[in-house]
């Protein structure tokens, strides 16, 4: 919290904690006030050297909020496509295309996007419209609290550039210098020290205005004129940039010649004195080494990487250079590693495909091209076979959720997408009654829980008007929400959560209390309670049961976004689909599998697993085991029927008919 002021909006949250803070109000939503974090020191005008040093530290702490993952696994990606990528493209790209590119990247979840450059149009005619781009993306740069914390750094290599950047209300500027003398002379027409002096003059003016400064050092491995760069030369520039107040320095392999071995040697050298959280990796992909370099740098502690959507860019100094490392390639890698980048790969891939088409150039991302090809093949693929495709019949639409049925399967869908499918009081009560009544219905074997819209469920509805601090109301809330989770947990049917978007707090609980979770790559789980001063009290037992103690504890304490790949690896997500259509196919295939399962036997299995988890080696467990064993072969039981069918060589028992006949 060091560099933030906690700003409370509306009323103060009641200090009595969960019971009082969370209570249904008269609107039947959960009353809770919104809090936002605001960076401290922004807008300070103090330029005294000591104050400046303090500002540097402050800025580092401020920016380390999402960047320094010391000990953390998450990665921050700085998208450089709109600036570094486009500047190497000869044909002029229209301003609206640039603006749309930035908007699409932001919508894909990228929080740091290098928007443009304030350099002489003579140097880089492609980015001569920098001021206009900044004007048009203003709704993004002036996002409201709660929209998330986005940054749009711009290149401002000299005081004139800074002046123009400030006129465009830039909040962050990028300065740079080369580690190699020869490259500095060829590229900037000055020595390294002269380039650093220029950079420092920008930092000195920017920092007192509350403008963040990021440094980039180019040619970390080699330059095209004098060969390999010495680690000492890189370290010299890194330290100078940090000393002048850069909150981090990005290490640029301008030619894209470095291998993971070079990356390791350089980082081991730099990390002796410089913490990893102050460094970022900016690898070009000329020799196809960039992803491997990122992986090695990640293993050595770096958590910020620059990359460019669709691999936009190139390098005028490296003949045949493919350009920048493609953002899709590292997001794909980190997704598969279970490392959170905050980026929606599907949306990013769409953006990469779109901009490649706009520019009339091949998609420079390997992962992006593969996923686009796969998606195209997917649309041509035959539809799900008729035998497995269920037609849902609407049973009842309750407004905020609806109930449908297909044979022995009931599907409950949350239909409150405009509010993130947050659970109101009537929803809690209605769903509880629904699960309790379905528990009595022998003809329902499986219950699917799904959701419409962007989110699976954002937990209890927090949009209430007035806070209810009445203890009896709080107790009422506790009882009602607990009862919902109990009803789902005690459901004799096999319960399946189909998660096609982010879940928060109680929404995490809702997906976790189900027996089975099928999820798409859009699924995420955030136990946001701790960030609101709360605890996931009611849902904690399901989290721990399904995720395991250590994993659940860390996720609860950090309130971080848990990625679908992490839960899949843990075995807490049982089926993983690429997108929504794939997820539907997965669900129907899974329901086909469940058709073979006898429903009463399945409910006994659930009881046996539960007691094995909660009360292993207890007398209760022994009793349950012997009771179930005895019941299994009673006359008229599923067991008797199943074995008789086996003896008749029936391969798949028709349990729907069995129970329909048994009903009579
Ligand atoms: C989900 C993000 C990050 C999306 O953040 P975003 O992508 O910026 O979208 P947004 O914030 O604009 O959300 C879209 C709409 O959904 C609404 N919305 C969204 N969530 C809720 C909610 N819970 N209650 C009521 N409304 C909600 C939100 O207010 C907005 O409505 P609009 O402003 O357009 O009218 C953001 O909206 C957010 O942070 N929501 C709050 C999530 C949260 O922290 N929930 C905690 C609930 S407490 C709880 O569940 C307690 C429990 C049960 O776990 C305790 C226990 O176990 O004992």
From TrEMBL:
<dbReference type="Pfam" id="PF00682">
    <property type="entry name" value="HMGL-like"/>
</dbReference>
<dbReference type="GO" id="GO:0046872">
    <property type="term" value="F:metal ion binding"/>
</dbReference>
<dbReference type="InterPro" id="IPR000138">
    <property type="entry name" value="HMG_CoA_lyase_AS"/>
</dbReference>
<keyword id="KW-0479">Metal-binding</keyword>
<dbReference type="GO" id="GO:0004419">
    <property type="term" value="F:hydroxymethylglutaryl-CoA lyase activity"/>
</dbReference>
<dbReference type="InterPro" id="IPR018376">
    <property type="entry name" value="Enoyl-CoA_hyd/isom_CS"/>
</dbReference>
<comment type="similarity">
    <text>Belongs to the enoyl-CoA hydratase/isomerase family.</text>
</comment>
<dbReference type="InterPro" id="IPR001753">
    <property type="entry name" value="Enoyl-CoA_hydra/iso"/>
</dbReference>
<dbReference type="Pfam" id="PF00378">
    <property type="entry name" value="ECH_1"/>
</dbReference>
<comment type="pathway">
    <text>Metabolic intermediate metabolism; (S)-3-hydroxy-3-methylglutaryl-CoA degradation; acetoacetate from (S)-3-hydroxy-3-methylglutaryl-CoA: step 1/1.</text>
</comment>
<protein>
    <recommendedName>
        <fullName>hydroxymethylglutaryl-CoA lyase</fullName>
        <ecNumber>4.1.3.4</ecNumber>
    </recommendedName>
</protein>
<dbReference type="InterPro" id="IPR029045">
    <property type="entry name" value="ClpP/crotonase-like_dom_sf"/>
</dbReference>
<dbReference type="GO" id="GO:0006552">
    <property type="term" value="P:L-leucine catabolic process"/>
</dbReference>
<dbReference type="InterPro" id="IPR043594">
    <property type="entry name" value="HMGL"/>
</dbReference>
<dbReference type="InterPro" id="IPR000891">
    <property type="entry name" value="PYR_CT"/>
</dbReference>
<comment type="similarity">
    <text>Belongs to the HMG-CoA lyase family.</text>
</comment>
<dbReference type="GO" id="GO:0046951">
    <property type="term" value="P:ketone body biosynthetic process"/>
</dbReference>
<dbReference type="InterPro" id="IPR013785">
    <property type="entry name" value="Aldolase_TIM"/>
</dbReference>
<keyword id="KW-0456">Lyase</keyword>
<feature type="domain" description="Pyruvate carboxyltransferase">
    <location>
        <begin position="75"/>
        <end position="349"/>
    </location>
</feature>
């Amino acid at each position: 919290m060091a560099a933030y002021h906690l700003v409370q909006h509306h009323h103060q949250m009641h200090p009595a904690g969960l019971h009082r803070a969370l209570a249904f109000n008269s609107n039947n939503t959960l009353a809770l006030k919104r809090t936002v974090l605001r960076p401290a020191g922004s807008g300070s005008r103090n330029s005294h050297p000591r104050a400046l040093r303090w500002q540097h530290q402050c800025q580092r702490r401020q920016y380390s909020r999402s960047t320094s993952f010391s000990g953390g696994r998450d990665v921050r990606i700085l998208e450089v496509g709109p600036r570094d990528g486009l500047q190497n493209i000869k044909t002029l790209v229209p301003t609206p295309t640039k603006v749309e590119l930035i908007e699409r990247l932001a919508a894909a979840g990228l929080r740091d996007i290098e928007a443009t450059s304030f350099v002489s149009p003579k140097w880089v005619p492609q980015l001569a419209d920098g001021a206009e781009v900044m004007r048009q993306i203003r709704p993004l740069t002036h996002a409201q609290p709660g929209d998330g914390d986005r940054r749009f750094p711009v290149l401002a290599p000299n005081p004139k550039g800074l002046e123009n950047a400030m006129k465009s209300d830039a909040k962050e500027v990028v300065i740079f210098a080369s580690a190699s003398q020869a490259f500095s002379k060829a590229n900037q027409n000055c020595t390294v020290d002269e380039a650093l002096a220029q950079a420092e003059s920008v930092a000195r003016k920017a920092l007192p205005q509350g403008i963040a400064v990021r440094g980039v050092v180019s040619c970390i491995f080699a330059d095209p004129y004098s060969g390999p760069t010495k680690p000492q030369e890189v370290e010299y520039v890194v330290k100078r940039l940090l000393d002048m107040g850069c909150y981090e320095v990005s290490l640029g392999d301008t030619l894209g010649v470095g291998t993971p071995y070079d990356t390791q040697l350089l980082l081991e050298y730099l990390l002796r004195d410089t913490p990893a959280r102050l460094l970022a990796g900016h690898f070009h992909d000329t020799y196809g080494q960039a992803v491997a370099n990122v992986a090695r740098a990640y293993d050595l502690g770096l958590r910020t990487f620059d990359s460019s959507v669709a691999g936009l860019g190139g390098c005028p100094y490296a003949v045949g250079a493919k350009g920048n490392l493609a953002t899709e390639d590292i997001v794909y890698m980190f997704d598969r590693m279970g490392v959170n980048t905050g980026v929606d790969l599907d949306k990013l891939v769409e953006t990469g495909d779109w901009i490649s088409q706009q520019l009339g150039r091949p998609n420079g991302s390997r992962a992006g091209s593969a996923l686009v090809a796969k998606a195209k093949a997917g649309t041509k693929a035959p539809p799900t076979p008729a035998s497995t495709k269920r037609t849902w019949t609407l049973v009842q639409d309750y407004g905020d959720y609806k109930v449908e049925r297909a044979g022995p399967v009931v599907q409950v869908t949350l239909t409150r997408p405009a509010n993130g499918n947050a659970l109101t009081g009537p929803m809690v009560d209605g769903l509880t009654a629904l699960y309790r009544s379905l528990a009595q219905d022998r003809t329902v074997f499986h219950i699917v829980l799904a959701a419409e819209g962007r989110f699976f469920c954002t937990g209890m509805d927090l949009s209430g008007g007035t806070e209810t601090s009445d203890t009896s109301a709080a107790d009422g809330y506790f009882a009602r929400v607990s009862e919902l989770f109990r009803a789902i947990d005690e459901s004799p049917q096999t319960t399946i959560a189909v998660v096609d978007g982010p879940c928060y707090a109680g929404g995490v609980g809702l997906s976790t209390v189900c027996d089975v979770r099928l999820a798409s790559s859009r699924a995420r789980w955030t136990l946001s309670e701790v960030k609101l001063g709360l605890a996931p009290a009611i849902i904690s037992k399901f989290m721990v049961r399904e995720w395991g103690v250590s994993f659940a504890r860390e996720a609860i304490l950090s309130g971080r976004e848990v990625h679908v790949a992490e839960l899949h690896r843990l075995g807490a997500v049982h089926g993983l689909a690429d997108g929504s259509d794939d997820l539907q196919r997965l669900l129907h295939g899974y329901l086909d599998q469940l058709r073979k399962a006898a429903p009463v036997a399945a409910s006994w299995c659930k009881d046996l697993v539960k007691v094995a988890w909660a009360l292993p080696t207890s007398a209760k467990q022994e009793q349950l085991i012997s009771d179930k064993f005895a019941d299994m072969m009673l006359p008229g039981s599923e067991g008797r029927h199943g074995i008789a069918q086996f003896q008749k060589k029936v391969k798949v028992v028709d349990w729907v008919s069995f129970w329909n006949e048994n009903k009579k």
